[in-house]
C-alpha cells in the first residue's frame, strides 16, 4: 500500500515570553492511503498541534512531514495552501461554519473560490449525501450541532480530498449525534477511499480505526493496530 503521510523525527516548540515549551518530541509514524487512523492522549499532550502540522497548517521546527509525496518543509506558505486545497479536508470540533452563509453557501463558496465549475450543483449533491437535502438554505444558527457538523463534513469533502483530518469531531455533540457523525465519516472513507485521521479522547471511536497512536507529554507512548472484526 502507498503511504500518504510520513512523519519522521518531528519536533515542535512554542515560545511563551522568554521560555520555550517543547510540545512534540521525536514523533515518527506513517499512514497508508485509505487507512483510518486515530491520535489519542490526554489534554495538552500535543494532539491538535500534531494534526495541524500534518495538515500543513503550521510548520515543524525539525523533522520531516511528507504529505501525498510532498515534503511540507520545503514548501512556501502559498504552496502549502495550494496542496491543502487539493489534497486535504479538515473538520473542527466547533464546526467553524461562516454564520452569515447558508448551509449550501458554506459548501459552495470555498468551491467557487477554487474556480470549481458547477459548484452549486456539487454543493447540493454533497449536502444530500450527508442527509441535509432539506436544510440547504438554513443558516448555521438554525441548525442543530449535528447538522452543523454534517455541513462541515460536506465542506471538508467538497474538494475530493485524499486525506481528511478531524480534530475531536464529536467533542461538541451528544453521544448519539456524535456516533452518527462518526458513521458518516467512516462511510465516506469506505465510499471514497479518503484517508481518515482523527484526534479523539473517545476510546470507543479510537478502537474503530485501523491504527492508533497515543501521545503523552508530546511523545508517542503506544502505537497499535486494531484488528478489523
Ligand atoms: P491537545 O490537543 O492534546 O490538547 P495541544 O496540541 O492543543 O494538545 O497543546 C499542547 C501544548 O501546547 C499545551 O500545553 C498547549 O497549552 C500548548 N499550545 C498549543 N498551542 C499553542 C500556541 N499557539 N502557543 C503556545 N502554546 C500552545
From TrEMBL:
Keyword Zinc tagged: no
Keyword Zinc-finger among record annotations: no
Residue ranges occupied by any ABC transporter domain in the UniProt entry: 5-228
Xref: InterPro entries: AAA+_ATPase (IPR003593), ABC_transporter-like_ATP-bd (IPR003439), ABC_transporter-like_CS (IPR017871), MacB-like_ATP-bd (IPR017911), P-loop_NTPase (IPR027417)
Key words, A-Z: ATP-binding, Nucleotide-binding, Translocase, Transport
Signal peptide start and end residues: none
GO molecular function, one term: ATP binding
Family of this protein: Belongs to the ABC transporter superfamily.
Name the record gives this protein: ABC transporter ATP-binding protein
Amino acid at each position: 500500500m502507498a503511504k500518504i503521510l510520513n512523519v519522521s523525527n518531528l519536533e515542535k516548540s512554542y515560545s511563551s515570553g522568554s521560555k520555550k515549551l517543547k510540545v512534540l518530541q521525536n514523533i515518527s509514524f506513517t499512514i497508508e492511503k485509505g487507512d483510518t487512523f486515530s491520535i489519542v492522549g490526554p489534554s495538552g499532550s500535543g494532539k491538535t498541534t500534531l494534526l495541524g502540522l500534518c495538515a500543513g497548517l503550521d510548520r515543524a521546527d525539525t523533522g520531516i512531514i511528507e504529505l501525498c509525496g510532498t515534503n511540507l518543509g520545503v514548501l512556501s506558505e502559498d504552496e502549502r495552501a495550494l496542496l491543502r486545497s487539493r489534497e486535504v479536508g479538515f473538520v473542527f470540533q466547533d464546526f467553524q461554519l461562516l454564520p452569515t452563509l447558508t448551509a449550501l453557501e458554506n459548501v459552495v463558496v470555498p468551491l467557487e473560490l477554487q474556480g470549481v465549475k458547477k459548484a452549486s450543483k456539487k454543493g447540493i449533491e454533497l449536502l444530500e449525501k450527508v442527509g441535509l437535502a432539506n436544510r440547504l438554505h438554513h443558516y448555521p444558527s438554525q441548525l442543530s450541532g449535528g447538522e452543523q457538523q454534517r455541513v462541515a463534513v460536506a465542506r471538508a469533502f467538497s474538494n475530493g480530498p485524499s486525506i481528511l483530518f478531524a480534530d475531536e469531531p464529536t467533542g461538541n455533540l451528544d453521544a448519539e449525534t456524535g456516533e452518527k457523525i462518526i458513521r458518516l465519516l467512516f462511510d465516506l472513507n469506505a465510499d471514497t477511499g479518503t484517508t481518515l485521521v482523527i484526534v479523539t479522547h473517545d476510546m470507543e471511536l479510537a478502537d474503530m480505526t485501523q491504527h492508533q497512536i497515543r501521545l503523552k507529554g508530546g511523545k508517542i507512548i503506544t502505537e497499535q493496530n486494531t484488528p478489523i472484526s
